[in-house]
Amino acid sequence: MSELKKAKPENTLGRKRDHTLDTRILEAAIEILAELGFDGMTMDMVAARTKSGKATLYRRWPSKAELVRDALIWMSQSSVELEHLPDTGNLRDDLLALVKPYSLEFSERKLRVLAKLGSFFSEHRKIAEEASAGIFGPWTDFNRTLMQRAIKRGEIPAQADIEMACQVIIAMTSYRSITQGQPFGRTDYAALLDHILLPGLKHQQ
Amino acid sequence: MSELKKAKPENTLGRKRDHTLDTRILEAAIEILAELGFDGMTMDMVAARTKSGKATLYRRWPSKAELVRDALIWMSQSSVELEHLPDTGNLRDDLLALVKPYSLEFSERKLRVLAKLGSFFSEHRKIAEEASAGIFGPWTDFNRTLMQRAIKRGEIPAQADIEMACQVIIAMTSYRSITQGQPFGRTDYAALLDHILLPGLKHQQ
Amino acid sequence: MSELKKAKPENTLGRKRDHTLDTRILEAAIEILAELGFDGMTMDMVAARTKSGKATLYRRWPSKAELVRDALIWMSQSSVELEHLPDTGNLRDDLLALVKPYSLEFSERKLRVLAKLGSFFSEHRKIAEEASAGIFGPWTDFNRTLMQRAIKRGEIPAQADIEMACQVIIAMTSYRSITQGQPFGRTDYAALLDHILLPGLKHQQ
Amino acid sequence: MSELKKAKPENTLGRKRDHTLDTRILEAAIEILAELGFDGMTMDMVAARTKSGKATLYRRWPSKAELVRDALIWMSQSSVELEHLPDTGNLRDDLLALVKPYSLEFSERKLRVLAKLGSFFSEHRKIAEEASAGIFGPWTDFNRTLMQRAIKRGEIPAQADIEMACQVIIAMTSYRSITQGQPFGRTDYAALLDHILLPGLKHQQ
DNA sequence: CGATAAACGAGACGGTACGTCGCGTCTTCTG
DNA sequence: CAGAAGACGCGACGTACCGTCTCGTTTATCG
Predict the structure, then answer these.
(1) What's the total number of domains in chain A?
(2) Which of A105, A110, A91, A109 is nearest to A190 (CA)?
(3) What residues make up the domain containing A185?
(4) How far is CA B13 from the centre of its chain?
(5) Which of D116, D129, D179 sits opposite C180 (nearest CB)?
(6) What is the pTM (predicted TM-score) of this model?
(7) Structure confidence by residue, pLDDT tens digits, C128-183
(8) For labelling, which of A195, B136, C3, D198 has a CA lying 20 to 30 Å from the CA of C164?
(9) Which candidate in C156, C166, C180 is best for mutational testing of the D interface (most D CBs within 10 A)?
């Protein structure tokens, strides 16, 4: 449950901050990022599109980079709402059920955003890690849980390298989206599972 | 065999371009990128370090981005010179023998460069792809060859998804270096091979 | 009464322009012009000396040339403040009394400025005319008035070519200052009056 | 008879300089100056228009400024060829006879050139003086001779300030052409003579 | 006649100023 | 006090020009 903002003293005097603006700003940022990328996006653009002012942006975020970080995290969280994990009794189907919200739903605008952000990641390494964690962290958690269940069921051996498998999933998704700019579709994902990951987990040496 | 430069008409009149300068410029760019990243690097810095002038840089490259692209490609090509592929009669050892020049040797300056260039990749998507291809393309080619040999030897089945395996290697290296900024070391690589890739290839469903 | 600036809409929103900066900038420009001339003066120098930024200069003036024009006009207007014209009852003494603030006082910095700006005048013809008018216009007006009084007193005939005489004064001053770079001193001016202008006006054919 | 060039050692070896090029270069320079002024003129333009190279220009002149100086002098001398001074037995007609080649003939392109060179004069003071001397020097010499003859004839008194009168002529011409950019026409010149100069010289106090 | 030396056209080179644009801060006025 | 608007200091970008240099070619004189 990563927090977008540390709780500020929240002054009780004067006009209150309009926190619906936060959302509108992040949304605008995402839109512009999807079109123009990090360097192409201007703080003035964001201010103009939200009919606000630059000072308002900088009152909320100390820099463009941190605004973008929060925009990314917000984007990734905004649509994923899982009440309960899939439980088909079968690791392959469990993982496939989970890929939709986490990877495939990125396919439209979100993918474009990530694809445009190579430039951003790791110019601001720490922020990129946080954004990355915000986006991929929960998915990794879920994948890990599903695999542990599979171990309990005896579907894969106990000594299977679950962490590595989770990383491969993230790495493939991230590499294809961010570095190569192509979607990592359901078919691709199924092939990864069937041809590499599942046999690998089951027959680890 | 990606070419750094399209063959220009190469006018026969006038003073010739000093093409040793090209190399010195690219080298200087890489050094600065390793220290300061894309945004931190300045065209004036590059000019100063090569005791040349900005006009000279812009005569050769139309923008900072394209200079950086060529610098990356040049960097990736400059040190890897394999006369013959390893041939240990064993896929695991072959792949491990290859990882050193391609992944681990990046650990010094090259890794730092890649790590600093998240910001750059895919701001200039096309350039990133070219640079990526220049860097990872040859390695993929070699990995593919080694796996095909393993098929011939009967070490892995013919229907093994070689392409996917190659992509996983690249993705893991790239993800760890570029997105996470940590080296993907020999031990990690061995674990990937032993726990996932090799069993996966051998027991594909 | 030439205006330095067209009245801008003067937006009522946002931070106000600091118009004291205008003056400081013009003053700095004049100082640098006096030392280094037009080509020697750099926008960065002006910005540095006023502890401002280039963008601020270009927000106020569209080019270096127009900044210099306004600096010249400002310089010419800044120090000459005559409440009442001299009135000695004698044209020669009246004119001599006026030459000090208008010509001889230029001898210090102002003359140096004009002398350094040959290079500038009429590269930007219109600007030169405006600056010239700003500098010499008022003096011509005063000279004309003094001569008209002399006509009224019967000191010189009514048909005397006053306009031509005024132009000769300006032309000699300007030529000596701008084109030749030597001051047109009080003695020279007295000689011009005694040997040419006054006898000429009095005995016109 | 001012010399454009000091006699160089004039090496006897190697290819001879094509001195017809000198003239073509100066002519091209004048054309460009008339259109674009000093700053607008580029050494590359001059080279291009004469189908020569920049090195050729710099072999002959050490800088753009000195090329322009010689271009001005060449321009002024190129059309004035007086075998014998006018001698009408009358100072007014003598002076008027001389004004045509020296002032009025400038009216077309030459005037435009001078008008565009305010920017140049006195950024390069010395050169401007030389150009000025080259252009106006001979005219002043002729005017002086004519006035001395008038003294001999008893037309004007011996103590008349001839030098000042010559300067006034130059100053008015120069001021109107260079600083104001309007021609100083024959009518204007006649008025100057009749209303100021001649009565002034005759009745000097 | 062939060697040699300089002029020539073309254009690369180092340097420096221009004018533009974005970031992050500061200031003013309005709700 | 928050918010909209926009000026401000700073510094990099990409362009243009100066004056120098280095090519390969052409033209002259000398041995």
Answers:
(1) 2
(2) A91
(3) 82-202
(4) 36
(5) D129
(6) 0.74
(7) 666 677 777 888 899 999 999 999 999 999 999 999 999 999 899 888 876 666 77
(8) C3
(9) C180
